[in-house]
Amino acid sequence: MLRHTALFLGYELRFLLRNPIWPVFGILQPVMYLIFFAPLLGSTTPSGSMADVLAMFTPGSMMMIALFGSLFAGFGLINETRNGVLERLAVSPAWPPAIILGRVAKDMLVLVLQAILVMGVAMLMGLRIGVIAFVVMLGLMAMTGLFAASLSYGLALALRDENGMSQIVQFFAMPLTLIAGLFLPVSLGPEWLQTAAKFNPLYYGVEAGRALFRDDLSNSTIPTAFGLLGALAVITLIWSMRSLRKMAG
Amino acid sequence: MIIEAHDLRKTFIAKRGRGKTEEVEAVRGIDLAVEAGEIFAALGPNGAGKTTTVRMLATFTAPTSGTAKVAGFDVVKEAAKVRENIGYVSQAGGVDDNSPGLDSLMLAARLSGMSRKQAQVRSEELLEAFSLTEIANRPAKTLSGGQKRRFALAIGLVTRPPLVFLDEPTTGLDPQNRANLWDEVRTLRAQGTSVLLTTHYLDEADALCDRLIIIDHGKIVAEGTPTDLKKEVAGDVVTLRLKGLEEARELLAAQDYIKEVRAEDDLLRAYLDDGEHGLPQLLRALEERNLTLDSISLDRATLDDVFLRHTGRSLRDAA
Ligand SMILES: Nc1ncnc2c1ncn2[C@@H]1O[C@H](COP(=O)(O)OP(=O)(O)OP(=O)(O)O)[C@@H](O)[C@H]1O
Ligand SMILES: [Mg+2]
């Protein structure tokens, strides 16, 4: 089982190593936000210092790569439902979940590497975080990637249609971004917005990230985020396995 | 028996848009018995249900009803065991466009349990056999249709399965590559591998397979060796074009050396066992009635004549 997942992961990584440029493009967006948008946020933190602004803003910009990178991971799979690749794998001796898990593992790995780069840029700009916070943040990113990529593969297999998929992803990405308080904490907003945010898994990811960056390691949002994203990932993975089986009609 | 199927059926629920659905009876009761070591073909027009049948046998699609055993295992209850014993090359091919064919080959080999070393040896063997060594490391999207098909085949054979399913293996190949593929399929048989292939080419089924079924509208309409099936129709067929079609049909049907007469649009087909000797008699009979011919030809009966006899349509214009 694990062996098959590792084999699929290896296959995906070989492809990635031949085309390493795309994930680098993926971090340009959050880096631009850090450089051009974060300086505008001085008035939103008590001290107004760049270090505080970055501690508030960096987790949000990192969730952005998870959202805009991993949520689109499934697009490639749609073509594979038609060109016979999935059909062949489905009747091969491969453990079926490994077909999806191998890809998800690759997306998680890419996301963690991107996260390291974004945090590196933020640190160059003045962010200060501890080693534990750094490592736990990477774990949180991996967890977010696990959920977002699984969701994306699940959507791809259920819809099997590029147009439908891009509409749905766009449709969800926007409110998820806004209601998670990706750019500014929702605690700055009205009550109803804070209530709405509680239904958004991404909100917990961002809040957990902010707690970590404040060095508030015992904050309850951290285990909540891990638990919630993990549970959702399992549900979406089961869903994609079912869609994979239903592909045959 | 490497394949045994009883009354296999598949009904798809197809979406028609606006929430409406319709039922498509793709396969409507197929019985199959394929011996180990045979090349077995399923011949039929587009939409006959060939792919659906193969997909059910290869454990991709679950049958709506009926049972099938492949390599001794039930395709539904023991799907994992079936998968260990088959190679499957789908109609679409299933070669990943983004990666080199060699990567796909290695992955397929290792998924079946081979070590890296074993997988390398086996891959090299297959690259050699299918003349793919030079293009092994090019992304598959840069390959021609025929080259990709050869990769698809190599991937399907990587585990040395006792049974391979080839769904329209020669579609899109030029005559040269088609002939090569036929040779490769024959080599497989020589090594003791059983092959189930589908095709809509008459000559392919005729030249390549030991036994075949002819499928139409999800049902088997004929089954046997190519020779037996053709013999059942007759050895030869005389095709005539003339005026007074109906009169000529009655006249020829009454001749005892003619087994069967069929009218089709503006021509008549007369089936007879010994065309060389029957033709002069046939011409005399027409002349006695003053029926003038526009054209006439004598051919060996083909599988198309078998298809025509069982379905009333010619495979050339069936769709
Ligand atoms: N997933 C599906 N959903 C709905 N209908 C389907 C599905 N797959 C096949 N069909 C229908 O079932 C019938 C048989 O299709 P099938 O693909 O088995 O034919 P085929 O003999 O392989 O044809 P071809 O020579 O064109 O490949 C067709 O009418 C087709 O439209
Ligand atoms: Mg087909």
Automatic annotation (TrEMBL), chain A:
Subcellular location: Cell membrane; Membrane
Residue ranges of domain ABC transmembrane type-2 in the record: 21-247
UniProt membrane topology term: Multi-pass membrane protein
GO molecular function: ABC-type transporter activity
Keywords: Antibiotic resistance, Cell membrane, Membrane, Transmembrane, Transmembrane helix, Transport
Database matches in PANTHER family: NODULATION PROTEIN J (PTHR43229)
Any one of the GO BP annotations: response to antibiotic
Name listed for the protein in its UniProt record: Transport permease protein
Pfam family, any one: ABC2_membrane
GO cellular component, one term: ATP-binding cassette (ABC) transporter complex
Spans through the membrane: 21-41, 53-78, 108-125, 131-156, 168-188, 222-241
Family affiliation: Belongs to the ABC-2 integral membrane protein family.
Lineage, broadest ranks: Bacteria, Bacillati, Actinomycetota, Actinomycetes, Streptosporangiales
Source organism of this protein record: Acrocarpospora corrugata
InterPro entries per the UniProt record, alphabetical: ABC2_TM, ABC2_TM_bact-type, ABC_2_transport, Nod_factor_ABC_transporter
UniProtKB/TrEMBL annotation, chain B:
GO BP annotation list: daunorubicin transport; doxorubicin transport; response to antibiotic
Subcellular location: Cell membrane
Gene3D superfamilies: P-loop containing nucleotide triphosphate hydrolases (3.40.50.300)
Bilayer disposition of the protein: Peripheral membrane protein
ABC transporter domain sequence ranges: 3-242
Source species, domain of life: Bacteria
UniProt keyword terms in alphabetical order: Antibiotic resistance, ATP-binding, Cell membrane, Membrane, Nucleotide-binding, Translocase, Transport
PANTHER family membership: ABC TRANSPORTER ATP-BINDING PROTEIN (PTHR42711), DOXORUBICIN RESISTANCE ATP-BINDING PROTEIN DRRA (PTHR42711:SF19)
Family: Belongs to the ABC transporter superfamily. Drug exporter-1 (DrugE1) (TC 3.A.1.105) family.
Protein name in UniProt: Daunorubicin resistance protein DrrA family ABC transporter ATP-binding protein
Organism: Acrocarpospora corrugata
The organism's taxonomic lineage, starting at the top: Bacteria, Bacillati, Actinomycetota, Actinomycetes, Streptosporangiales
